[in-house]
Amino acid sequence: MSRWIWIAGFILVIALDMGCSRPEPPSAIIQKAQAAGAGDLSGASEPSMAQWLSKHPETAREIEGMCKSVRPSAAANWKDTTEGRLCAASARVAFYAPSQTKGDERTFGVGTH
Question: What is the largest CA-CA distance in the chain?
Fold first, then answer.
């Protein structure tokens, strides 16, 4: 009987621990991604965020611009937050995302160096 009480107590402690998590403060960066169609990011991993952002490179660049101002003053555990994971994913995707370049309308032919 005592054994079953210990097992039930252990399961109860584990269940309570899993259910206790602090909600993160609202973030304009996360709201930007959610407004663009990313959905709930609270449980998403960095690779899954990067996969979504790679299909939305313009959003990735916009989010990366927002993250650049937050990174220098971020707390030590910021990288583990939803915002931190999203910013890490956007940095990776924005770096490799093709950018719009505009030429200067010059053309080059043979012998016109």
Answer: 96
Alpha-carbon Rg for the chain in angstroms: 23
Provide the H-helix boundaries in 20-106: 28-35, 46-54, 57-70, 82-96
Which element (helix H / strand E) includes 4?
helix 2-19
Query: Domain containing 81: what range?
Result: 45-95
Question: Looking at the whole model, is its pTM more than 0.90?
Answer: no
pLDDT digits 0-9 by tens, 44-103:
999 999 999 999 999 999 999 999 999 999 999 999 999 999 999 999 999 988 777 787
Q: Would you state the structure tokens that stand for residue 35, as one six-digit string? A: 């407004």
Residues 6+ apart with CB under 8 A from 7: none
